[in-house]
Amino acid sequence: MEIQEILESLKAGKTSVKNAKKLLSLYSIEEIEEFAKIDINRRKRRGIPEVIFAETKELEEIKKIIEKTLEKTNSVIISRIKKKDYQKIITFSKKLKVKIEIGKNSSSLLLFKKPIKFHGGKVGILTAGTSDIGVAEESRLMCEAMNCRCITSYDVGVAGIQRIFPVLKKMIKEDVDCIIVAAGMEGALATLVSTMVDIPIIGIPTSAGYGYGGKGIAALASMLQSCSLGLSVVNIDNGIAAGGIAANIANRAKKSK
């Protein structure tokens, strides 16, 4: 529906104020010069915060998007910041007097104005190796921005399979609603975890690996070909997507409890 139709429908009593507000929120876009259109109501509409993919953006563009987004919302994630821009963005964010959550071994940041309340669901996050932590941390930042509490355990892959059992025991005890598994090489950890729990699993194939099948290709193929049901898979190194899906699952589970 166009804005005029929504308003006429409201005036005629054909729709409620609540529904009209929801429909109008679809038109809430903040334009920044001629290079960006910010969907500032995405959080209200979908529960998902604004994410800036910084890898292909200029520093000044990133700064302007950060500033405009934080004028209208409480938080923003900056993903895949170029090495030369990383410290500059932190310095700029401090000038805005916002809080900064830094992803370990990651080039991503979560900026927020008011403390985030973890009133959503619970998400477990695992990595097969230390090389996978940066991707997993993107997922953590996304989940926390969506009010989920995260329980993490890193470097618990199949090269030392005994490491995974106490970790899973803890996650089951904590009653996590979803588990994210980031794994490179052959990506076996995602299948292994999904065979042992009755919890939705989201696999992230990472680009850690050698030669043939490297750059995440073998891990992606392995996860896609998994014979264990209950495992879904996102694209290579896409921690942001995995975090968004996991948090949506966890938050909906929380509502139904």
UniProtKB/TrEMBL annotation:
Which biological processes are named by the entry's GO terms?
A: 'de novo' IMP biosynthetic process
Q: Which InterPro entries match?
A: P2CMN_synthase_LarB, PurE_dom
- Annotated PurE domain residues: 121-255
Q: Which GO terms describe its molecular function?
A: hydrolase activity
Tell me the domain of life. Answer: Archaea
SMART domains in the cross-refs: AIRC
Q: What is this protein called?
A: PurE domain-containing protein
Instruction: Please report the organism this UniProt entry assigns to the protein.
Output: Candidatus Nitrosopumilus salarius BD31
